[in-house]
Specification:
The protein has about 180 residues and is an alpha/beta fold. The chain has two domains: about 70 residues, Double Stranded RNA Binding Domain (2-Layer Sandwich), CATH 3.30.160; about 80 residues, Orthogonal Bundle (Arc Repressor Mutant, subunit A). Helices cover about 35% and strands about 15% of the residues. The strands form two sheets. A four-stranded mixed sheet has the order 3-2-1-4, covered by helices on one side. It has a two-stranded parallel ribbon with strand order 5-6. Helix 4 crosses helix 5. It is globular and about 45 Å long. The two termini are about 25 Å apart.
C-alpha cells in the first residue's frame, strides 16, 4: 500500500513551488504554473491516490529555504528524496546531484559519467522526466557548446538559479569527475 502523499505550497523567489512528500521524503518538486504536469507525474508514479495538504517536514523545508535564501546553496543535497524511475533515469538523476553548485555540465558529460557516452539523447529524455526540480539540478546542464538550453521551469528560472549559484560568472566551471558513479 502506498503511504499518503502530501502537498505543500511554498513561496520562493522563483514563484510558488509545489512540494510533494511522503514518509519524510521529498517525492516531487515543481513550479505552480506547471501544476498539471506535477499532478500527472504524481499520478503516474503513485496512482490516483488522494493528495492531502500538509506542511513539508523540517528536513525538507529548512534546506530548501537555506538554498533559496543563498544562506547555503549546497543545503538541498541534504534533503531526503524518493524519486522512482527506471534504473537509467535514477543513474542520470544521481549524476545530476553530483554536479556542484555553480557547475555547468553538458548532457554528454552526464552520459560519460554514467558510463554510457553514446546515450546523450537518453540522458536528455531522463532529464525531461526529472521529478525534483532544483533538488536534482538539471538547471546546471548546458548545450555541448556551453549555451543555455531549455529548462522545465523556463529559461528565466534557469538563469536565476545559475546566477544564484554563481555559475554565470566568468570563472571556469568545475569539470565532471573521471570514472563512473555506482549504479
Amino acid at each position: 500500500m502506498t503511504p499518503p502523499i502530501y502537498i505543500d505550497i511554498i513561496s520562493s523567489p522563483l514563484g510558488v513551488l509545489l512540494v510533494a512528500h511522503c514518509s519524510g521524503y521529498l517525492c516531487a518538486l515543481d513550479f505552480q504554473d506547471y501544476e498539471s504536469r506535477f499532478r500527472q507525474m504524481l499520478a503516474r508514479r503513485f496512482g490516483n491516490i488522494p493528495l492531502e495538504r500538509r506542511a513539508a517536514p523540517e528536513a525538507i523545508q529548512k534546506p530548501l529555504a537555506a538554498y533559496l535564501s543563498g544562506e547555503n546553496i549546497e543545503a538541498v543535497q541534504d534533503i531526503p528524496v524518493h524519486a522512482s524511475g527506471t534504473r537509467f533515469q535514477r543513474q542520470v538523476w544521481n549524476a545530476l546531484r553530483s554536479i556542484p553548485a555553480g557547475g555547468l555540465w553538458s548532457f554528454a558529460d552526464v552520459a560519460r559519467l554514467i558510463g554510457q557516452p553514446s546515450a546523450v539523447r537518453d540522458v536528455e529524455s531522463a532529464v525531461a522526466r526529472n521529478p525534483l526540480a532544483i533538488i536534482v539540478p538539471c538547471h546546471r546542464l548546458v548545450g555541448s557548446a556551453g549555451e543555455l538550453v531549455t529548462y522545465v521551469g523556463g529559461l528565466a528560472r534557469k538563469r536565476w538559479l545559475l546566477a544564484h549559484e554563481g555559475a554565470l560568472a566568468a570563472l571556469p566551471s568545475p569539470t565532471p569527475p573521471e570514472g563512473r558513479l555506482p549504479a
